Amino acid sequence: MAASFFGPQKNTNVRVGLPAVCFVWQIAMVVLFGVFIRYDEESDTHWVEFRRENNITSDIENDFYFRYPSFQDVHVMIFVGFGFLMTFLKRYSYGGVGFNFLIAAFGLQWALLMQGWFHSLNPETGKITIGVESLINADFCCAGSLIAFGALLGKVSPVQTLVVALFGVTLFAVEEYIILDLLHCRDAGGSMVIHCFGGYYGLAISWVLYRPNLHLSKRFHGAVYHSDLFAMIGTLYLWMYWPSFNSAITDHGDGQHRTAINTYLALASSVLTTVAISSMSKKGGKLDMVHIQNATLAGGVAMGTAAEFMIQPYGALIVGFCVGIISTFGYLFVTPFLEKYLKLQDTCGVHNLHAVPGMLGGFIGAITAAAATEAVYGAEGLRNTFDFEGEFENRTPGTQGGFQAAGTCVSIAFGLVGGVCVGFILRFPIWADPGDDNCFDDEVYWELPEDEEIVPPVLEYNNHMIHKHQEISESNFSVDQS
Amino acid sequence: MAASFFGPQKNTNVRVGLPAVCFVWQIAMVVLFGVFIRYDEESDTHWVEFRRENNITSDIENDFYFRYPSFQDVHVMIFVGFGFLMTFLKRYSYGGVGFNFLIAAFGLQWALLMQGWFHSLNPETGKITIGVESLINADFCCAGSLIAFGALLGKVSPVQTLVVALFGVTLFAVEEYIILDLLHCRDAGGSMVIHCFGGYYGLAISWVLYRPNLHLSKRFHGAVYHSDLFAMIGTLYLWMYWPSFNSAITDHGDGQHRTAINTYLALASSVLTTVAISSMSKKGGKLDMVHIQNATLAGGVAMGTAAEFMIQPYGALIVGFCVGIISTFGYLFVTPFLEKYLKLQDTCGVHNLHAVPGMLGGFIGAITAAAATEAVYGAEGLRNTFDFEGEFENRTPGTQGGFQAAGTCVSIAFGLVGGVCVGFILRFPIWADPGDDNCFDDEVYWELPEDEEIVPPVLEYNNHMIHKHQEISESNFSVDQS
Amino acid sequence: MAASFFGPQKNTNVRVGLPAVCFVWQIAMVVLFGVFIRYDEESDTHWVEFRRENNITSDIENDFYFRYPSFQDVHVMIFVGFGFLMTFLKRYSYGGVGFNFLIAAFGLQWALLMQGWFHSLNPETGKITIGVESLINADFCCAGSLIAFGALLGKVSPVQTLVVALFGVTLFAVEEYIILDLLHCRDAGGSMVIHCFGGYYGLAISWVLYRPNLHLSKRFHGAVYHSDLFAMIGTLYLWMYWPSFNSAITDHGDGQHRTAINTYLALASSVLTTVAISSMSKKGGKLDMVHIQNATLAGGVAMGTAAEFMIQPYGALIVGFCVGIISTFGYLFVTPFLEKYLKLQDTCGVHNLHAVPGMLGGFIGAITAAAATEAVYGAEGLRNTFDFEGEFENRTPGTQGGFQAAGTCVSIAFGLVGGVCVGFILRFPIWADPGDDNCFDDEVYWELPEDEEIVPPVLEYNNHMIHKHQEISESNFSVDQS
Question: Which residue of A has its CA nearest to C238?
Answer without folding.
Answer: A76
